[in-house]
Amino acid sequence: MKQQDLVGIVLDLAQAIQAAAIYPETHQRVRLILGRLHDRIQRASAALGTIHVGIIGDHFVIDEFPFLDMNPALVKLLRDIREKGIEKFSIRPGLTFGELKRFVSFLITGKDDGSGRKWECIAYGNIETLGGVDSLEDGKGLALPASHILSGATDVLKELLRALSGGGGTASLSDGREIVAGVMKGLRQDAFLIHRLMRLQAHDDYTVTHSLNVCAIVVAQAAALGFPEARLQEIGLSAILHDVGKEMVPSEIIQKPGRIDAAEFERMSEHPVLGANLLRKLDCGSDLPMIVCFEHHIKYDRSGYPRTAAALPLHPVSAMTQIADVYDALRTNRPYRKGMDMKAALSIMDRGRGTEFDPGLYDNFLKALLFRQAGAGA
Questions:
Q1: Largest CB tally within 10 Å, which of 50, 194, 311, 330?
Q2: Is the domain of 90 the same as that of 158?
């Protein structure tokens, strides 16, 4: 199933709602668009099973694919759906033309047809946070799991970081591993995932989306080096937890809209040690998350922080996380400056090759990043 086929479902849904709001349901244009939409849904559900459509920020996400090219019809559709308290809807195989027509009418009016009929193949509701399932109304009390990377992932990660900083344990770590698995799946299926995550970042908490971005970029680097799948899980979990120590830094420093002063920087620079001490007490499956958390601000030439007495080499995953950390920080918008485009960010980073960044791993980062951009047709 191609991305454009899934996007076509949402585009046709927007057109169907426009037409049905103007013409009677028996009008040829309404029936033509609804018929085309029904055909698309049947083909997609035959290939994928349940189809999930979610709203993240100001964009739709269709299964694995964030859809960023929002035309006026899609903007209106998103607004109309959100006004009805819907952040996600799911369509199971077997959808009839009649139920589809009823759902379109519901999205227009916000009211069911009054017959009391249950939804057989359509579920809708909110994208929930920690808990593992979505609360979706389908008349049967069924819960449909989220299938795409961003569906609730940022909220789960927020709770994961808070739970860890408060002494939470194994259950929270399993949620982290599920997010890593989603990142890995997305990287395989969508070559532009890294760039799309950063464009969606503006709608979410910075530390959380930054952790997701860094995880995606580190997993891409590790995959380019040929690490096996099982090892990628461990690496991804380490990258996604690299900033867990920030949960123990005062929020007024973390959320300060301007640049922090010297005293605040000193407090901020404690977060690698705080995070590493926290992870040392937990069963993460290995010591790698603790190591990466401690080392991700130490540069190739041993500058950075925290200061260490021994000039031992950094763990390669720490070095890859440091590269991803800097790249995402340059690329994303902050309250005190606008994010840079890729060319500008890389021109700055190039100057740190061999001093700030391990030269071999930096070259691998460029290879992974530019390969994925080329694979997306850019």
A1: 194
A2: no
